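ingest -> validate -> predict -> emit
validate: passed (alphabet ok, no gaps, 346 aa)
predict: started
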Amino acid sequence: MKICANNSKNWYAENIFVFLLFLSVSFSVVYSQITRFDLSDSAFGGTDGDIKQYIKIFSGESLETIPKPFRYRILTPVLARFLPFLPKSVAVFYEVDDEKVVKFKFGIVNALFLCFSALYLYKFCRYLAFSYELSLLGGLFFLCSFYVVNYAGMPLVDASAYFIIMASLYAIVKGQNIRFFLLFTLGLFAKETTLLIFIAVFLIVVGKKEKLIKSALCFPGLSAYAVFRFILYPANIGYTYSINKAIQGLKILIIPSDFLIYMAIDGGLAFGFLWIFAAHGYYCIHKNRGHLLIRLLPLFWLIVLLPFLLRTNIGRIWFLSFPIVIPLVLSSIKRFFDKGRLLSRF
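emit:
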């Protein structure tokens, strides 16, 4: 009993320590965004872009006035709306206006989502048998990535999407069915990218019975989302996906054009030079076909294709592969520094 008590204390101490470490970085990352950028800047979509649509939801405007798919991504804006603001006695020192209130509330919510995303990435890396130090490094790689540092703290829903994907993957591998059910159901109202987790179930869950159980846990959420999207709030306004657009998008990969240069730049920004380490990390483990990361590779390639199938931003979509790419990077680092020899096993 004494051993169990000590293990429990160590578990809580470890999680609190890692949480506070990542929380500190998350708030620093978000602070620079919410204090320096104009929400009407064309770089963030201008007056009709993503940010303005989420602010409309935050402000309580009717969802019927908001184009798809933004009207269905209600989790982050609703959480931000109900988040308390600073007391008036404190706010007076910050020359507060309406825009600052919006930035502050979204910033706090997104900082927490980022922190928990990094925490679950850390726990996922520990599950993959990486050391404490490498797992912490993985979380920091996530928080210091280009799209996190530049966009995740803004009034957008990307941070919640990162959290849902990472926490759901961890819940799957740990067999936490109730947590997985709740995460998947909520996640569909964060962003449609949660559907990637449904595919992940079939890639990483072992055994037909377990696959059936995990996939069945997704159907209540899928049903609720379908009712919300197609019955309660169907939309004619907004972006429409089609097979024709998907075919046109795939042609870009085949026909040489300047767009391929843009693709390399925009997609390259997702992980920068870490792409190189990820490729080496794959080389380090590619012979182990049962490795969890190897089993997840079809999901990685699907994420790579998604921007072309949906005709949307490349880098922000590619970054959704961070639960695969960052552990691959750690595999490379582990090989480099194994037993104190840098290149002996390269």
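The chain has a mean pLDDT of 89.
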